[in-house]
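Q: I'm writing up a methods section and want to include an example of the input and output format. Could you take the sequence below and give the corresponding predicted structure tokens, formatted cleanly so I can copy it straight into the document?
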Amino acid sequence: MSSSPLNVQLALYEGPLDLLLDLIRKQEINIYDIPIAQITQQYLDYVQKAMELDIELSAEFVYMAATLIHIKSKMLLPRDPELEKIDPQEDPRKELVDRLLEHERFRSAAQMLQEKRLIEEAVWSNPQIHQFSAEDEAPELQVTLFDLVKTLETVLERLKNRPLYEVSKEDVSVPDMIVFLKNRMRELSKSHTLPVMDLFERQKSRRAMICLFLAILEMVKQQALALTQKESFGEIHIRKDEAFDQVLATGDDTANIAEEYN
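A: Here is the clean output for your methods example:
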């Protein structure tokens, strides 16, 4: 059995956005000011090495390569300063930056879900615990963050068949959605719940839904909200948790989150 005299290891990525994020983070590049020529060359070098090693890449990698080259060419074209005053052009990198930030947030959420799953698998629960509950107490079923992600996926799938509305310069953010949730829950009793599906479907855009999803995660992490189900595989609801009033009383957490997502 013959072996190659040179054993080359190439990192594998699930998609082109993972590759780009890895290049940016490893080099500590400001994601809002990507040196597009440098990143494009590094991206193409990776694709070339993958081809030499017979690593099959999806069509998304090829499409992203074309996108990077297109952005690079647009940035190399000189702009007339006078024309720029009349008709200022948006940074050609902006759409790519937005996609990278959104992908990174989803990846962070996925890592949180994985960590929670590992913790849940390591926790043993007594099957006879119901004997210690009061007879008139209605136990809430355990809701995992996987269930919440599934709800968001369902709504996003429905969104494909829903009429699209053009919203110019939408500027919704995760802190905005935290304020929205606080206001919705403020007047409700601790036992009152709101259906998550309904909250998602009331949003006008995919971006707003994603920001709402991340806001729910943040408030669950702060123990301001709790996720509940009335029956197995039933609809997910949110209710006030033990720290809701404390989180409501201060704006520090919202300010910190705003800084984190900016």
